[in-house]
Specification:
Layout: H1 4-7, H2 17-29, H3 34-38, E1 47-50, H4 56-62, H5 65-76, E2 81-84, H6 86-99
Antiparallel strand pairs: 1-2
Helix pairs in contact: 4-5
């Protein structure tokens, strides 16, 4: 896991005043946690999450103009955003980004992610 200083500051990663304004507007328009909503529960979202991490800081460090452009587009693409509560964002969303597998199982104990190694997937 990268150390904090290797990730850059929040501003270096794109989370400056422009992001804060866009975040506030998005949460006002999408007030509920997307993960909880899927389970039929209304829990207030406090984090705007990128479904696919844009890795803007890493793109800037690469100095590759095409990679930077792609990262910027992904960062500001509202279709790539979802509101999450802090618990969902800081727990299973982070595990998903690290492992690439959705955590959880159905009522029969079968993993819900078809890529999970117990499902015969590639995970």
């Amino acid at each position: 896991m990268p150390k904090y200083n290797e990730r850059g500051s929040s501003s270096q990663r794109g989370y400056g005043s422009k992001w804060q304004g866009a975040r506030e507007l998005y949460l006002a328009q999408n007030p509920f946690c997307a993960d909880h909503k899927e389970r039929g529960r209304d829990v207030i979202a406090t984090v705007v999450d990128h479904k696919i991490a844009p890795k803007l800081f890493e793109a800037k460090q690469s100095r590759d103009p095409e990679r930077i452009t792609r990262a910027h587009k992904l960062f500001w693409d509202r279709n790539n955003w979802q509101g999450l509560c802090k618990l969902c964002h800081d727990s299973h969303k982070q595990r998903l980004e690290k492992s690439g597998v959705v955590i959880g199982c159905d009522v029969d104990g079968i993993p819900i992610d078809s890529n999970h190694h117990w499902s015969g997937g590639g995970g």
